[in-house]
Amino acid sequence: MFADKDISKFNNIETPFYYYDTDLLQKTLHTCADAAAPYQFHIHYALKANFNTVLLNQIREIGFGADCVSAGEVRRAVEIGFDHKKIVFAGVGKSDKEINEALDLDIFCFNVESIQELAVLNELAGKKGKTAQVAIRINPNVDAHTHHNITTGLDENKFGINSWDLPECAETLKASPNLKFIGIHFHIGSQITNLDVYKNLCVRVNEFAAWFEDKGFKLKVLNVGGGLGIDYYNPDHQIPDFGSYFKIFNEFLTVKPGQEVHFELGRALVGQSASLITRVLYVKNGKKKNFVVLDAGMTELMRPALYQAYHKIENLSKQFPVDSSQIVKYDIVGPICESTDCFGKEVEQPESFRGDIFAIRSAGAYGEVMASKYNLRDAIRSVYNYEI
Ligand SMILES: Cc1ncc(COP(=O)(O)O)c(C=O)c1O
Ligand SMILES: N[C@@H](CCCC[NH3+])C(=O)O
């Protein structure tokens, strides 16, 4: 993304801002689409990772569908022009208002997360004289081996319907005339880098599919969710290994004729395509610690404060290689009134000065969309590679 370390293009732009590399996004999308094509896998992009309209337009153009988790996301997907027959709506707490809106927009499928939600959806669809297509989100109790806070497929997590509730779920489906049951849905967590985890998921999906088929249900869709991770330590490697990822599902998932396999990728598609560009406001050299104070903080990129997530930090104003005598360890912090407003502790950087431009890399997913107004901060802006 910054191979030439040419920052002259950033010099006259007010910081902080998200810098989006849409060329890299294009490359990533094409790599993913090409890797999925031989298996005829369907990709629904998870808007929660980033609902920036410039990105969404590119994602729609490549032919992916949309995985949404609120009526706002469904509305955004429709506005962008995603085919409504490629829009799915998941979420553990869909309100009646949201369900009604999605019914009106004739989306492809509701990924239902509780038996009570099935009953509500059946009732609301009935009032409109509609039939809602549903997939049941099952909690498969598969460990995603990722950060505890972003694991979603264990018994202790709130997501999906637990296996012991499936008999009641099946009865409810049979007794719901306004629902058409089309498949099963899973999502075990995010930032998954150990691909073996997906083999375990496939085994569970096969078991659950067989269970439903034994009960006389036909499954058209096997939706295995998303979660494929990116390499935060080497953002220059940029494009995730979609080939190995899809190969696992091709090998380990039992797919019957006529069945579709759906994926809901978010981070893997957009994560490497943006950096948070920020300037050094102050450098504080203390006895115990040196601090670089940036003009971006947890209000612009929350992941380090929320999950102690690692993002590579680069001082773009310095030419590399830097003499080792000029390397200093800094705590790299933001301006927010919170001690957790820290992008990295004891980070080795070339000696840095007020005005230096820093890039916080791999910020395309769960970055801009998780920004907040805390401390009444100005809204973060976006800048695109083709503009500068
Ligand atoms: C149901 C569902 N699908 C898809 C995703 C996208 O996940 P990721 O960005 O890790 O691919 C998420 C978020 O974790 C999710 O909750
Ligand atoms: N927001 C998280 C991931 C959660 C994904 C949504 N279920 C992150 O920044 O990594």
From TrEMBL:
Modification sites for N6-(pyridoxal phosphate)lysine: K48
Pathway annotation from the record: Amino-acid biosynthesis; L-lysine biosynthesis via DAP pathway; L-lysine from DL-2,6-diaminopimelate: step 1/1
Entries under InterPro entries matching the protein: Ala_racemase/Decarboxylase_C, DAP_deCOOHase_LysA, De-COase2_C, De-COase2_CS, De-COase2_N, De-COase2_pyr-phos_BS, Orn/DAP/Arg_de-COase, PLP-binding_barrel
Positions of the Orn/DAP/Arg decarboxylase 2 C-terminal domain: 17-364
Biological role: Specifically catalyzes the decarboxylation of meso-diaminopimelate (meso-DAP) to L-lysine.
Family of this protein: Belongs to the Orn/Lys/Arg decarboxylase class-II family. LysA subfamily.
Protein name: Diaminopimelate decarboxylase
